[in-house]
Amino acid sequence: MKLGDDVEEIDLDLTLEKYHTAKGFLEKVASELASESNIQLNRLVNEGARDRLVLASGGVARDYLSVLRKSIAIGREQSASNVNVAAVNQAAGEHEATKRDEFRRDVIDGQDALESEFERVKAFCFRSRSNCFTIEKDLGSEQYHRVKELVDLRLVHAIKSRVTVRHRPGRIFEAYMLDLSQYAGERKRRNFEMLEFWRSDDEAKLRLATLIYAEVAV
Has residue 203 got a pLDDT over 70? Predict the structure, then answer.
């Protein structure tokens, strides 16, 4: 078959920037699959876990279904009445190995530089005690482009394309979220704050200067 002639490509992946749209779409896909077994998604997964599943997927349908499947298996092992946040956290951590394998398979040139950048992003997030960080828009540096590549590899997720930061008048930033697999099990021990950036109260926190990972030197 030839793409464009015999078949058309349908992109099922969304970003977390349109969080509510992504959540609605992903849950519709999962609900359709669950209905074939006469199961209701809202009974299978509790409300908190539903948001956590969306974060774990980064808006990617394949990752959403993979983490959901792992979460259900973990819930059954724990004899839980439904899938809870703890089960999703554990499933997201287990799914990280799959992303790492894909990283090593897909990245041929510059793998060491990307690995190092990812470690720096993780270290920054743990220092700032937040799952989110910002970069000045159109920075143009190698660092900026490496972060963009990490987004393509689903290790970092775009959450907001336009953010103004306090004490940086006239400058525009982009906001990103470190993949859930990197901190789900560390959150309480490290006093780590998970910003629920889709909620108005937490969205304002993205404007903090302490979340700036990279900007133009002045």
Answer: yes
